[in-house]
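INFO  loader      accepted 1 record
INFO  loader      residues=665
INFO  predictor   begin
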Amino acid sequence: MPLPLKIVLGIVALLFAAWAVLYITKGRFLKGPFERIATSNLERKVEVGGDFQLYFAPINIKFLAEKISIANPQWASEKHFFKADLVEARIATFSLLTPDERINWLRIVKGNADLEWSADGDRNTWTFGDPRQRGKPLDLPTIRRALVAGTRLRYAHPQLQFHADVGIDTVRARDTKFENDIRFSGSGGIRGRPFTVSGGLLSPNETVAGGENQLALQAQAGPTRIEVSGTLPGATEIEGADLRMQARGPNLSLLFDFLGVAIPDTRQYRINSHLTKSGDEWRFTHLRGRFGDSDLAGRLTISMPQDRLHLNADLASKVVDILDIGPFIGYNPQKLDAQGASGAVEVVGGRPRILPDAPLRVEALKRFDANVKYSIARVRAESFPISNIAMALKLDRSLLTLSPLTFDLAGGFLSSDIEINARGEPVRTAYDIRLSPTPMGRLLAGWGVEQSGTSGVLKARVQLTGLGNSVRKSLANSNGRIAIIIPAGTMWTRNTELSELDVGTFVQKMFEKKLKKPVSINCGLVAFTVRNGVAAADPILIDTAKNVVLGNGAISFRDERIDLAVRADSKKFSLFSGQSPIGVGGYFAEPKIDPISGELLARAGAGLGLATIASPLAGILAFVDIGDAKAASCGPVLSGARAVAQRTKKGKARDDVGTGKASVS
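INFO  predictor   done
INFO  writer      dumping tokens
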């Protein structure tokens, strides 16, 4: 016999002898070496208090250990990572030579497993070896079949304020289609809110030898409910799973709290989607549902590149109700549900307040990144004709940008770039909002202004920067500029006549049935300089064919107070002209217009005195506008220049416009 063949036969004989010894003795003599080698490799104390078996049967590895325990690292809250009265398994031998380890059959009796992260989030109990090394994601071997009795699984993540305690048992199914079910149920808590979970793994008879498992899972945290059902390739194998998920509750942000992810609040919702896992990605596809009175569709992917949670989404809505946008910017969804639009108003210290004050969840933003695209075909709103909203949101290590955020508005186009920098304290927000030329008739139609006879347009820009973790706080100390520019156009005579309280001309034209005769607008600018949350008129100046509208005063983002005075000086002689400021006061939530100013009342009193002492004609003189208003040079107006740069048509500096200071003249 050739020597090589003898060597091969010798090796085979030795292997057979070793196999036979292990099979006959069941490998019980390996108990001590197993404990020593496992303890050394895991750097954890491993003990077997009862029977021990380790052998080939015939090819797969048979493992059995009674009273087995694996210690936890010293920082953990529990003494043991794992312990059980009995662990019995059939392990695919050749799978140990590959990264995809496979357990064909597993039995656990009265087991307890402790899966826990350290308080600093750097270590966990299932990463073995050097106790100082960074914790790795949980990677279970593929388990084809399992029988579990009286076993509990504990999971805790202090940084996420999350913990769960789940009991697992194998029960005989009533439905003859299944051999047995692995049922689980338990409870836990997330950020102080308790939840319950239950479900089962259902193994069909025809595929028990390495086949598919039917998963049914239900979880509930208060009114938030999640149901997952579908097929798993193996009992612990999620890769390539074909699942369906249903979720419903009062607020989507509560659902994402399970991931430690902060999203804007929403009104009540219900969502359905397909769910599968591919690599390190959880993919939610064919997503369909509603939030409030709005629809939602698209896809969402959750992944962990470089051990950091990342959300990638492409979402769309056909119709969104204006109330459903409110929670996105910080309004209370429950109040909106109960009170409608009035739920956006709060009374603080006896004063109405409408700017949203919901704080940005800065700590949650530190834990994940995101890229989200969201489009809305139409917004259902009574006053604003908004459509074709397109938003690109990016979150990169606490730097949140909404750029671009665009939509069509009343025949115009609004584009904006918003940056919220939460990388430091305090949060810094920069707003840059631009409105392209927009027809005033269409824009104001929701407030009862007819479009006929109004051909004027307006364009606008808002540039503000403020500090604070809410919309209200960032605006309350913001600095920047607000400018609304009105190029040449026409407007109803009624609108301009009322603005100057020109009673004589207004009544005259009303009787002549010329109320809708257009009045030409040469140019206009309504602008404010914002300093530390107070926006002072800089300037308010509208030049028409008949008059010049001027304004002074300020609005405050600090307490939402309005304190403006607007007057219209006629370019032509007119009787019965009030020629006095119209007061615009109150608060953002409750603005008030007061056409009977103190100056107007004083002039009315003077007129009454003159009429009593002299003659009725003298009383009229108090209401005569001699028509000396100075026409505006439209160049500085149309460029949005500050008050100091405004000029009359003769090129002289104006001394009748607001200077950008907060006082009312």
